[in-house]
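Internal ticket - ligand job 590, phosphoenolpyruvate:
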Amino acid sequence: MSKTGVNQLILQGISGSPGICIGKAYIIDREGVDVIKRYSIPESMLTNEVNRFKDAVEKAKQEYAQIIDSLDEDLGTELNILESHMLLFKDKMLYEKSIQTIIDNKINAEWALRNTTRQIKLIFREVEDLYLKARGNDIEQVSEKIISYLVGVHDEKISDINKRVILVAHDISPADTSQIQLERIMGFITDRGGKDSHTSIIAKSLKIPTVVGLGTATINIKNDDLLIVDGSTGVIVINPDEDVLLSYEEKRERFERNRALLARDSHLPAVTKDGVAFNLSSNIELIEDVVAARDSGATGIGLFRTEFLYLDLKRFPTEEELFIKYKELAELMNPQPVTIRTLDINGDKVNPIFKGIEEENPALGLRAIRYCLQNSNIFVTQLKAILRAATFGNVSLLIPMISTVHELLTVKKILKDVILDLEKKGETFKKDISLGIMIEVPSAVMMAEELGEHVDFFSIGTNDLIQYTLAIDRKNRQVAHLFQPLNPAVLKMLKLTIDAAAKKDVNVVMCGEMAGDPINIPLLMEMGIKDFSMSSASIPIIKQLIRNLDSKQTKGLYEKALKYENTAAIVDMIKNKFKDISPFKEEDLI
Ligand code: PEP
Ligand code: MG
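stdout (structure tokens):
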């Protein structure tokens, strides 16, 4: 943090999505539920306070009832959890005790409820019985829901903001990010988050300048402060001096001019000067993103992150609902390829509806295919919808987070059963769909040859592969500087995967954010990857780089990189070698 002029303050964070915006701050403190104040209630207002509490309980109950109504009946586990939560709203220990605490201590409802919940949790913590322990957690979840109505966090929806602002938040979930209205929100900044966290990925696909991992933005910034957000360098200037403002206005213009120039050429093919061709596809989160994918010059959808359909809906969609969406995507892109990934839920992509279990380490928990194999009805619903939609275009099926051969064989067994079932029902569907797995866990890299026996393609997910190889949480700003795609250990992981794929004649795509950063391309090119999928916003710049390169210039880069001991030296070596070609020439505009 540095101060220059009278009011000016500069904060350094992490680049989440490139570009510059200048505008007024609008603070949305999504952590509001954590900060509960205790205040006294006069005797004469106690009945009001109790009614305020009862009202919040009713609203929370109604929200649950709506969700339950919208759920498919075969989703037994989720229904059971929600129905048991419904009973807890009027639980004697929670409901009546909270009312009594308001009256006896003459204090506000949220403080009384939080206090009562803590006491109940203490009692349950002591018991051995696992069922009762879990009940303690259920009570806490129900209580947080009521508190969110009491403190009004519920009323604060990003989609309700009706002026052009820069959002300032402690954290924004990927689901909230996908709700952002582009005509209102110019950019956003958060205290938490890392470069390739899902929140940053969505910001990139929306092309909004974003800085994450600022640590203290919500403390240092007040509503209506003038902000400069430089998403390319991760710098925030609060109440800038006149000359600083002027220089950033110039930089913004240069950035936008450059982006327009890149867009102009984005429909040209991605072929190097010596004629080596590459496929550049888009990663998308919603069907609507197809427009941006097309505009960017993508030749297909290399990764459809289907979980955002679920996060936005806040319930589990039916087979028919999924089928309609997948069919629309297949038809829109036909004959270009579309890779649909099955649900990669949990980890950092969580919605209250999936929060049946509290996890200490969500990234290492019941995420993606692990969740789907434990909830096979949800998995089967998706597979059926994908196989049926596949007859309307050029569709492949991708399974996330495979970490053992056994897991993959279980998936294939379920897929076989799904095919039999669809046949029995006389449905029209694609039986021999191309099947791929994400390679994003080190154990999958080590077993790539064995896994390659059973699939048509690998899709390397570097966001998670880096997270799990280097033990760096994608979301944790404290260790974000250690999240290094060009770390030699990561390069070796990639090499093992590429070699195993070549041996087993399996196609390789890279769909992690590593593919969308120009600095990584020369090395990836030399290592033999020809298919890349990335945020649509990155495609024009990567095309420009490929078109300016001669593949012979990349010869020997991999061996050379491994001779260096640290990543910074590898980055410098590449920057230096290619410094005369675009986009490295205009480094401050990347
Ligand atoms: C990845 O892990 O690299 C990936 C593409 O998947 P996601 O970012 O959705 O985890
Ligand atoms: Mg992943």
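Auto-summary: Residues 400, 440, 461, 463-464 surround magnesium ion (ligand 2) (CB under 6 Å). The chain has three domains: 2-30+156-243, 32-151, 270-584.
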